[in-house]
Amino acid sequence: MRQMMRKTVSTMRRTMVAAALVSIAASPGYAGEVKIGVLNALTGPIPDLSAVILEAEQAAAAHINANGGMWGGDTLVLASGDSGCDAKAGVDAATKIVNVEQASIIVGPLCSGATIGATQAVTIPAGVVNISPSATSPAITGLDDNDLVFRVCPSDAYQGVTIAKLARSMGYSKLAATYANDDYNAGLHDVFVKAFKELGGTITGDQMHEANKASYRAELATLSSGGPEALAIFAYYNGSGITIMRQSLENGFFSKFIGGDGMIAQEVIDEIGADNLGDAVFTKGTADQSSSHFKTFEGLFDRPSDPYTAQAWDAVMVAALALEHAGSATRDLSAHVRAVTNAPGVEIGPADWAKAKALIASGKDINYQGISGVHEFDENGDVGGVYGKNVVSGGKWVETLMD
Fold this sequence. Notes:
Blueprint: H1 2-26, E1 33-40, H2 47-66, E2 75-82, H3 87-100, E3 105-107, H4 112-126, E4 130-132, E5 149-151, H5 156-169, E6 174-180, H6 183-198, E7 202-209, H7 217-224, E8 230-234, H8 237-250, E9 257-259, H9 266-272, E10 280-286, H10 292-298, H11 309-326, H12 334-341, E11 346-348, H13 353-361, E12 366-368, E13 386-393, E14 396-401
Parallel strand pairs: 1-2, 1-3, 3-4, 4-5, 6-7, 6-8, 8-9, 9-10, 11-12
Antiparallel strand pairs: 10-13, 13-14
C-alpha cells in the first residue's frame, strides 16, 4: 500500500507540474513578458527526476520575478516543452519553443539524445542558445554549434573515468557491462569501458540492449558467465534499469551493481527494495553540499539534493543573466552567456539576482558562481565539476563527494 501511495503521489506531482507548465506555455503573450524555453522530459524514462527539475526551474524564475524581474521590471515566463528523452520528440518540442513560443534562449533538453537532436535540427540553425542542466554525452562537446550549446554539468568524458576509478577502488577487477541504445548511456559506457581496461580491469561480457523490453533474462544469463564480480549498468531507471536489476536479483545473475546517474531515483528503491540494494553504487555530477552556495540553495528550494536540481536553478539563472546583460529579448546571446559566467567580474551567487541587476545596470562585470560549480565555460561550452558516490541507506539515496 505504501508503495502504491508513493507512486500515486509521484504521478500526481508530475501531472500538476505538467499542467502548470502547459498553462504557462499556452498563455497569450503580453507586454512585459520575457520568455525562456525549458525543454524537459515529463514523459519517457525519467519522469520523476524531470518533475523535480522542472520545479527547480520554476522556483528560479519565481525568485527572479520576486527580486526585480527582467530589465525594468518585466516578468520572466517559462515556455515549456517535453522532449521525452527522445531525439525526435526533442526536435518537435524545440520547434514549438523556437517558432511558436518565440523564446529567446532555451534551458535543456535534459537528455543527451534529445539535446543532440534538438540542437542540430532546430536551435543551431535558428541561432538560439541552449543551456542544458543534465545532458552529459561526450558527443555534445564536438558539436558544430557556432558557440550556441552550453551545459552546466560536466561531460561523461569525466564521469566514465570516475566510475572506472571507483570500481577499481572497490576491488573490482572483472565486470560485465550492459548499456541502453541511446546517446547518453552509450557514450558513458564507452568511456567507462576504455578507462576500466586502462586501469587493469577486465570486461568479461559487454552488451547493448534496447529499452522497455519485458525481459532481459537471456542477455543477463550470457553476461553473468565468465566470472564477473558485478554488473556495470548504464541505463535510465524507468527505461530498462529497474527491470534489469530486478531480473538480475530474482534469477541470481547479479547482486552487485555499479553505474551512472540515470539509475538514481527513489523509484529504484521503491521497486527493488532498499534491502536488495546494499551493493549498488551509482555516480552523478553533483554540488558540494558544504559550500555556501548550496546552503543558500537549501533555503530557496525544498529538494536541493535531488539529481540536477542545482544545475537546473543555475541554468535558468545563467539564461536570465545573459538576457539581462543583453538588455533585450535578442537571440544573439552566446557572448552574453560567457560575459556573466566567466571571470573576471564581481561574484554573484544563486540568490543574488537583485545585486546582479544593479551591477549590470551600472556597467560592472559579473561572474556567476553556481550551486553546482563556478561554471567557467570552455571553448566548447563545457564546464568542470564534482561527482558524488550514491548508495542506499535508510531507505534513500545518500551521496558523498568523491576525490
